[in-house]
Amino acid sequence: LLLIPIPLLGTTTLNPVTSVSGSLAPSGLVLGVYEKQSNNDGIHLTEAAAAFDRSISGKLSEMLSISGPPLKKGKSRIFYGLHQDFPSAVVVGLGKSGTGVCGKENWNNCKENIRAAVSAGCRQLQDLEVAHVEVDPCGDGQSAAEGAVLGLFEYDELKTKKKVRVTTQPYGSVDSAAWQKGVMYGDGQNLARQLMEAPANHITPTVFANTIEQKLSPFAHKVAVHKRPQSWIESEQMGAFLSVSKGSEEPPIFLELHYKGSLDSAQPPLVLVGKGITFDSGGISLKPSSGMDAMRADMGGAATVCSAIVTAAALKLPINIIGLAPLCENMPSGKANKPGDVVRAKNGKTIQIDNTDAEGRLILADALCYAHSFKPRAIINAATLTGTNTQAALMLSNKHRLINGFSLSFIITGDRVWRMPLFQHYTKQITESALADLNNIGKYSRSGGACTAAAFLREFVTADHWAHLDIAGVMTNKDEVPYLRKGMSGRPTRTLVDTHLHTKQDNLLE
């Protein structure tokens, strides 16, 4: 970080921006610069940065030339006093121009570079307590908006000292629809992050359901919210779900969301199912205490699914979506499941519970059975189920073309996915049970855990188009994604939203 005061420009008169609260707020600017293609090239500014440079008679190019070596990808410099409307301007490195999809990384380099660069610039200005920031669209307004919105998020609701709340808007010419779409994508993922970060005593099953209902209230004409109580769950004979919830004092909720975005009311819905364990102690098979606090986010599947539906409603996507989230806690008590217990799922299959910490697949089993009652065009479930890896969501599906639709979206959003097999080998592991039709962990326990978990879920799926996303490995962010701060990631909310744009194509559902 290079701080360069510029007294030679003289005293400037600021043109202050009014913040959301109505008070006068200092304004900052984030601009992009590309790496040189060769040593003979000059400074390669984005279109917006070049226009800014011309407005100040080339001072930006001049300062970049004398302030140090050319900016590499992800690096930045901040300048003061270049323009009367912007007391501070951050220039961020975008890497080489013209980059696209990288087959090795399985994402779009250009989009990821923009998100990371814009995020870094906005955070620097936030650290300076700049309350309003204008952002260079960098040729991709949606990615720039996503970088700004995602990069500025931090869960500090329960802290006395909070970071400055920053408002952002695009600088220069931009496709306003693309920018707004990026804002909505970012807001959707941030909603999932907020739910996942909140302590378990603040986000109980009831509070979770109420929060989503409140977020969907502006779209009441398009969305129906049903908060099904325990009596309803019992009437639906969801014995697997109830067996997990009975160990907690918090009552379970089965949250059911209906978004009707299609003008064709007969259009079969896309059903999204999310695991909603608002705290996972492991039950009688108690987890180690170290790191157990992170299990407040074991409802990441429900958080991403519900947030995706909120985003779809905000974007007015022209499709029908149903969201299902079985919500409960997994706690040890005198009423809790015991290893060796046998329970009966909604479809009549019996399940031997050899490990009470493999509870997510139990609540999903009943939800998947219920999902079929809507005659869906496809069922997609998301769950923090096994935590097998840390760099990609794991995906298992009974339909190759459905995975193609996801793959397109994962490349666009940068979330990435790793396809895993659904061999009969894994099915045998969970169907060879001493006491029941199925075993909830399989005879080899953690061997191929993500695959045996998916094989278990497949026993409750009869639909032709079904995909399972194991998102435990991307539940948190350390430094894997530069435009997300450390903490709960909210991944892959943007992908679940974007996938709707591809799965609505009939050829992906053949």
Automatic annotation (TrEMBL):
Natural source organism: Sinocyclocheilus rhinocerous
Gene Ontology molecular-function annotations: manganese ion binding; metalloaminopeptidase activity
Family: Belongs to the peptidase M17 family.
Cited SUPFAM superfamilies: Macro domain-like, Zn-dependent exopeptidases
Uppermost EC category: hydrolase
Entry-linked PROSITE patterns: CYTOSOL_AP (PS00631)
A GO biological process held by the record: proteolysis
Domain Cytosol aminopeptidase: 355-362
Classification via InterPro entries: Leucine_aapep/pepB, Macro_dom-like, Peptidase_M17_C, Peptidase_M17_N
Keywords from the UniProt entry: Aminopeptidase, Hydrolase, Protease
GO cellular component entries: cytoplasm
Record's function text: Cytosolic metallopeptidase that catalyzes the removal of unsubstituted N-terminal hydrophobic amino acids from various peptides. The presence of Zn(2+) ions is essential for the peptidase activity, and the association with other cofactors can modulate the substrate spectificity of the enzyme. For instance, in the presence of Mn(2+), it displays a specific Cys-Gly hydrolyzing activity of Cys-Gly-S-conjugates. Involved in the metabolism of glutathione and in the degradation of glutathione S-conjugates, which may play a role in the control of the cell redox status.
Protein's UniProt name: Cytosol aminopeptidase
